[in-house]
Structure to design on (249 residues):
């Protein structure tokens, strides 16, 4: 199968975790990939460390942003440089199962599917693991407006069919959500592979203290990125909160 996958990784202060991320890519049973790492001017020596661990690997492209600009900009630098038919995302502290790429590409090729994603595990700092398995087998623009079943570390899209789609820069802290909305806005449907193919690592930072901020960012997504009026923005915000509270997957 002469198909290439471009794996995009934004890297910032990731010296403690990116080796595991890299190892999970090296262990893939699908071998025709390029790994584009975009270092975003870390405060530590992540850039030098990454250069060292990938120095003998011709399949790795190491780039750097002009200045610290955030994950969305770093991903866009990677997307622009990507050469693969498919584009996938893996952050510098997350990991893939060895057969992730092989199963996902086979699924997309067999079903003529342009966007896919999968179940994944969530790894907490104390070692606890929770399984994220949304019930819906497919999801489109209207559903993504209020619930995002697509974990970015599992998402993949066909750039040959859909063109290169970039992370929006007008969705502060919600760029992943805006990205999947942009990909499905024209009616393209994302389909789920009902297998756990990745592990998402939760950092030590508490999320609950930032709930008010996240609500604010979510509201801005509807107002600024989707250009909804105030009433419609509040309506979708309410549906999103209710979905999270009642875990209606």
């Amino acid at each position: 199968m002469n198909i290439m996958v471009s794996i995009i990784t934004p890297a910032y202060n990731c010296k403690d975790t990116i080796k595991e991320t890299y190892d999970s890519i090296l262990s893939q049973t699908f071998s025709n990939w390029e790994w584009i790492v975009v270092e975003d001017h870390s405060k530590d020596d992540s850039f030098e460390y990454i250069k060292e661990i990938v120095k003998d690997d011709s399949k790795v492209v190491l780039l750097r942003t002009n200045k610290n600009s955030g994950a969305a900009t770093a991903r866009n630098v990677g997307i622009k440089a990507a050469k693969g038919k498919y584009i996938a995302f893996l952050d510098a502290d997350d990991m893939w199962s060895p057969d992730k790429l092989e199963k996902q590409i086979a699924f997309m090729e067999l079903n003529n599917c342009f966007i896919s994603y999968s179940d994944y595990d969530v790894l907490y700092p104390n070692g606890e693991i929770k399984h994220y398995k949304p019930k819906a087998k497919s999801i489109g623009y209207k559903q993504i407006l209020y619930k995002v079943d697509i974990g970015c570390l599992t998402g993949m899209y066909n750039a040959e069919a859909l063109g290169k789609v970039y992370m929006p820069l007008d969705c502060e802290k919600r760029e992943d959500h805006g990205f999947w909305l942009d990909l499905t806005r024209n009616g393209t449907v994302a389909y789920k592979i009902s297998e756990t193919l990745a592990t998402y690592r939760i950092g030590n930072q508490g999320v609950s203290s930032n709930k008010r901020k996240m609500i604010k960012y979510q509201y801005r997504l509807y107002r600024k990125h989707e250009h909804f009026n105030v009433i419609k923005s509040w309506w979708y915000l309410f549906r999103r909160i209710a979905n999270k509270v009642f875990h209606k997957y």
Observations:
- Strands lie at 5-11, 33-39, 60-64, 86-89, 95-96, 115-123, 129-132, 138-139, 156-158, 190-201.
- Residues 205-209 have pLDDT under 50 and may be disordered.
- The chain is about 35% helix and 20% strand.
- The first helix runs from residue 18 to 26.
